[in-house]
């Protein structure tokens, strides 16, 4: 039986999604909880990697439960949560078809990024938002975000993993780039058919640079659609603190 999981986690206490020697990642902790429940090794696949410090409201993962287990899919929720740290919670579990894959079946994702503009960052928001008390222009910020909509070559907004080749595809389509005011500052929401490594953080850092008057809007726009990077790369990568994986579409 293939089980699809929806889970949330607080990235402040974790070293990202991808398995690491420290074993303090979402994948490692989830695999241990599932394996302890099944009494045999279980491999868990996620919809994508989130970096250390990045949060998730609805990450999606899947695994194949062994044939000898006849648990109702929903019972995996309490079974896993009792074995996971409080910074990770499974929200839902359901049976899916054998051809479902958390990563390869995904058609899009939504991230949002929280910015706190208050003069003093509350200790209760530390690690949960990017503290930017310096004045920024919301109109420039919104204009810069809107410039990214549509299909573009985003190589300038992709960090390198070291496994890139000439065939690496840097084209992605963004369908949403919204700015919303909230009580403590701003929320930036990005939706697309996929995102490159650190792409959301690099886009966010760059549009903030524009909004603070440290980069012209047309210079920012010129970083889009430039194979070979003749005009350079994104000027700033936003910290992990304010980034949340909001949802995954299938």
From TrEMBL:
The keyword Isomerase applies. It is an enzyme of class 5 (isomerase). Substrate binds at residue 111. SUPFAM superfamilies: Pseudouridine synthase. It catalyses: uridine(38/39/40) in tRNA = pseudouridine(38/39/40) in tRNA. Formation of pseudouridine at positions 38, 39 and 40 in the anticodon stem and loop of transfer RNAs. Belongs to the tRNA pseudouridine synthase TruA family. CDD domains: PseudoU_synth_EcTruA. Residues 17-104, 144-250 form the Pseudouridine synthase I TruA alpha/beta domain. The gene is truA. It comes from Haloferula chungangensis. The active site is at 51 (nucleophile). GO terms for molecular function: tRNA pseudouridine(38-40) synthase activity. Keywords: Isomerase, tRNA processing. This is tRNA pseudouridine synthase A. PANTHER family: PSEUDOURIDYLATE SYNTHASE (PTHR11142), TRNA PSEUDOURIDINE SYNTHASE-LIKE 1 (PTHR11142:SF0). NCBIfam families: hisT_truA (TIGR00071). Homodimer. InterPro entries: PsdUridine_synth_cat_dom_sf, PsdUridine_synth_TruA, PsdUridine_synth_TruA_a/b_dom, PsdUridine_synth_TruA_C, TruA/RsuA/RluB/E/F_N. Its EC number is 5.4.99.12.
